[in-house]
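thought: user wants a sequence for this fold. calling inverse folding tool.
action: design(structure=
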């Protein structure tokens, strides 16, 4: 698979691509986990799927900041799954086999994965994942913001983004509508580079501004 080539040094390659931001891949993964903790509360204890989990970078931070969750992971790259920390795989199912995934997830997270999925398959993937949510469960999609020129440059420099086709928010919203999920929020995130880190406490007040490096949509499955 495409990502099998990078499984051994995935984080190092990604860190090099992100160097212009002054942050590494761990910062951006933890940023997403902290966003979800604010949304859900630290004591959230539902069943969660990290779809496109890769080597488990985001999974580790989800478990750190939402320690009560039951966490599963899915990725098409078996070599990447083998790199997931044993402490995570011992507590949940990490697989490339759809049939091993549950159908009662309280939350499914898709973090910077959709732009790797061929456009003709995206609608079907979202509908499949919507079918694996329990009533009242949520789907959270994090994606690169194609309106941000720095984001487009970083994607262009990243070796494993060579197949990337970025999604504008309107496209992502359309897939959620097609899957009959109710959009609860659309936030733009990741505004300030490292040299302005002392101002990052202001970022939650900028979520409305469509200039963030990424965006997140959270949609709910109706009962």
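)
observation: tool returned 223 residues.
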């Amino acid at each position: 698979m495409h990502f099998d080539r990078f499984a051994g040094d995935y984080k190092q390659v990604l860190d090099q691509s992100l160097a212009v931001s002054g942050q590494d891949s761990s910062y951006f993964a933890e940023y997403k986990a902290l966003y979800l903790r604010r949304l859900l509360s630290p004591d959230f204890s539902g069943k969660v799927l990290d779809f496109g989990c890769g080597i488990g970078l985001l999974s580790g931070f989800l478990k750190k900041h939402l320690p009560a969750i039951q966490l599963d992971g899915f990725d098409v790259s078996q070599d990447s799954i083998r790199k997931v920390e044993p402490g995570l795989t011992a507590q949940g199912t990490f697989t490339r086999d759809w049939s091993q995934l549950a159908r009662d997830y309280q939350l499914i997270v898709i973090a910077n994965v959709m732009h790797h999925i061929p456009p003709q398959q995206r609608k079907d993937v979202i509908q499949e994942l919507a079918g694996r949510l329990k009533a009242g469960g949520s789907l959270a999609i994090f994606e690169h913001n194609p309106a941000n020129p720095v984001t487009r440059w970083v994607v262009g420099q990243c070796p494993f983004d060579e197949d990337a086709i970025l999604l504008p928010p309107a496209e992502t919203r359309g897939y959620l509508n097609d899957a009959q999920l109710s959009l609860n929020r659309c936030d733009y995130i990741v505004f300030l580079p490292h040299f302005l880190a002392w101002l990052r406490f202001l970022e939650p007040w900028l979520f409305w501004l469509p200039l963030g490096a990424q965006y997140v949509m959270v949609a709910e499955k109706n009962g």
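thought: summarizing for user.
answer: Here is the designed sequence. The mean pLDDT is 87.
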